[in-house]
Amino acid sequence: MASSALICDTEQWKALQAHVGAIQKTHLRDLMADADRCKAMTAEFEGIFLDYSRQQATRETIEKLLKLAEAAKLKEKIEKMFKGEKINSTENRSVLHVALRAPRDAVINSDGVNVVPEVWSVKDKIKQFSETFRSGSWVGATGKALTNVVSVGIGGSFLGPLFVHTALQTDPEAAECAKGRQLRFLANVDPVDVARSIKDLDPETTLVVVVSKTFTTAETMLNARTLKEWIISSLGPQAVSKHMIAVSTNLKLVKEFGIDPNNAFAFWDWVGGRYSVCSAVGVLPLSLQYGFPIVQKFLEGASSIDNHFHSSSFDKNIPVLLGLLSVWNVSFLGYPARAILPYSQALEKLAPHIQQLSMESNGKGVSIDGVQLPFETGEIDFGEPGTNGQHSFYQLIHQQPVYLKGETVSNHDELMSNFFAQPDALAYGKTPEQLHSEKVPEHLIPHKTFKGNRPSLSLLLPQLSAYEIGQLLSIYEHRIAVQGFIWGINSFDQWGVELGKSLASQVRKQLHGSRMEGKPVEGFNHSTSSLLARYLAVQPS
Ligand code: F6P
Q1: Residue 1's closest CA among 283, 451, 368, 257?
Q2: How far is the CA of 30 from the centre of ligand 1 (A)?
Q3: 406 has a pLDDT exceeding 50
Q4: Which numbered atom of ligand 1 lies nearest the CA of 497?
Q5: Closest ligand 1 atom to 273 CA
Q6: Over the stretch 426-435, which tens digit does the pLDDT of each residue have?
Q7: What's the confidence (pLDDT) of residue 37?
């Protein structure tokens, strides 16, 4: 396939389109009756078990998807990513989050330079800093040890670390290491969130970590200034060097903000914001809370999946299979949304993280060469931990004609009955015949009839410690990349988000002009102008 050709023009894509009819004629009930099929539609790595037998797919579908992967040059694209080629072509950048968790002796080049030593030099600095901090040797302006950390950042500088922090609740070793400490996150500029983030905290014992790849994001900088003020008003200006540190690729702006450059932790433009949890973005705050050794286990887990993804054959490769099945569901079966349903409360922030990771990566309408795509990419991701979700949106999943793909992740024994029941409820549904035989009153039959045939897949983890959390993260990161590689889009830029940012900056300028100089708000359409006028009238300052 020529590099600028679209995947939908290949014979492999058309073969899958032609295959849809046969699949849609077959109910999952019938597919599930074939034990050999069910046995074949599984994959396992280091105790992580993927069961995709409840997908509307046969072994023939998988073979066709594997041929599509060949047509899309998936192997070559993965190789280019691991080799540090500039596959994020619209930003002229390598995509090397795998280097963040690679072992010390690995060699991964970007622009001809091995980045691994740089990565480890920042990790060594974090290890040392976190040890000093946690031992109590790092003292604040009044000589007290610091036990509370507020991490200020948004988007990729927030969601990944929050996911890992929340998930670590089930790791007993991590819980032990975190005793007597608090890690909080501040993302929203809503004053309510600012107040929540510092509620009951004393600046004397609090460290603020400002996390921003660019160090220009309006929300983060405003929140950082607010917390700087909070520290200064209580402890004086000299306290900033002891109570504020930063993570950024823009160390010049960190210095200008007033943070001591010695207390700044770098990362690099080849780490995308939403792929940055394994850089200092996540490693620093998490090491302050749990100690570096726990975080290193998380990184090792992610690295184990990187190796699996890089070296396993595609028919046994968990991220590749997941990516191909996503393409099948979105582009061929027409499912617009995916529910992520972790049967573990500790994974409550998995869905919010994946929302950004997946939708910011693959919500693209043009190919990597800028050609408008005639097929759907990306799906809407949403989710809640089971069993909470069951009491919320599962009704729609079971009965609404808008199809959803369920996805369950669990590691928690007490939830297993629901974890096992739901995929079958989705697949089998309930027929009017069954309801009649149960003597259900006639008027209730339509309400209790479920067509079933709702595809899902189950990912079973042996446990949820730091290592498996890293594995889970890496599985999702690579699954998303596989989808993008097949569709031929750039999963690593986010121009849509940038558009919103620049429009917000125009509004900000106008609001400022109106408040400070009494200038009229101008340059917007009628609707926006009148909304702004109302806002200015009710919120005068
Ligand atoms: O949400 C858009 C985005 O650009 C993300 O990609 C990024 O993670 C986030 O904003 C925050 O950006 P920064 O880390 O530069 O503050």
Answers
A1: 368
A2: 46
A3: no
A4: 2
A5: 8
A6: 889 899 999 9
A7: 97
CA-closest residue to ligand 1 atom 8? 156
Residue minimizing CA distance to atom 9 of ligand 1: 155
Residue 138, SS3 per DSSP: coil
Region 222-239: mean pLDDT is 97
Peptide bond into 387 cis (omega under 30): yes
* Predicted pLDDT of residue 185: 98
Each residue's pLDDT tens digit, 409-427: 554 556 677 788 888 888 8
Q: Could you give the strand order of the β-sheet that contains 404-410, starting from the edge strand earlier in sequence?
A: 42-45, 48-51, 456-460, 404-410, 337-343, 380-383
- For residue 501, the CA-to-ligand 1 centroid distance in Å is 10
Residue 188 above 70 pLDDT? yes
d(CA 259, CA 280): 16
Specify the residue with its C-alpha closest to ligand 1, atom 1: 155
**pLDDT score, position 62:** 98
pTM of the entire predicted model? 0.93
Instruction: Express each pLDDT in 268-288 by its tens digit.
Output: 999 999 999 999 999 999 999
- CA of 158, closest atom in ligand 1: 8
**Residue labelled with tokens 């600012």:** 194
Name every protein residue with a CB atom under 6 angstroms from any ligand 1 atom: 154-157, 212-214, 217, 220, 273-274, 494, 497
- Positive or negative, the Cα torsion across 292, 298, 299, 301? positive
Compute, in angstroms, the gap from residue 85 CA to the centroid of ligand 1: 22
Enzyme catalytic residues: 360, 391, 501
Q: Encode pLDDT of 59-103 as tens digits.
A: 999 999 999 999 999 999 999 999 999 999 999 999 999 999 999
The backbone region for 387, taken as left when phi is positive above 0, alpha when psi lies in -120 to 50, beta otherwise, is alpha
Distance CA 15, CA 193 (A): 51
pLDDT for res 102: 98
Strand, helix or coil at 449? coil
Residue nearest atom 3 in ligand 1 by C-alpha distance:
155
Q: For residue 35, what is the enclosing H or E element?
A: helix 35-40
Q: Name the H helices within 262-412.
A: 280-290, 292-311, 318-327, 350-362, 394-399
Cα(83) to ligand 1 centroid in Å equals: 25
Number of neighbours of residue 400 by Cβ within 10 angstroms? 11
Q: Rounded to 5 degrees, what are φ and ψ at 265?
A: -120, 125
Distance 157 CA to ligand 1 centre (A): 6
Residue partners of 379: CB distance under 8 A and separation at least 6:
326, 329, 330, 335, 336, 337, 338, 358, 362, 405
Does residue 405 register a pLDDT over 50?
no
Which ipTM was obtained for this model? 0.96
Tell me what the mean pLDDT of segment 355-376 comes to.
94
475-489, pLDDT tens digit by residue? Answer: 999 999 999 999 999
Picking from 461, 177, 162, 122, the residue whose alpha carbon sits closest to that of residue 293 is: 177
Which atom in ligand 1 lies closest to the alpha carbon of residue 220?
A: 16
Alpha-carbon torsion (481, 483, 489, 494), positive or negative: negative
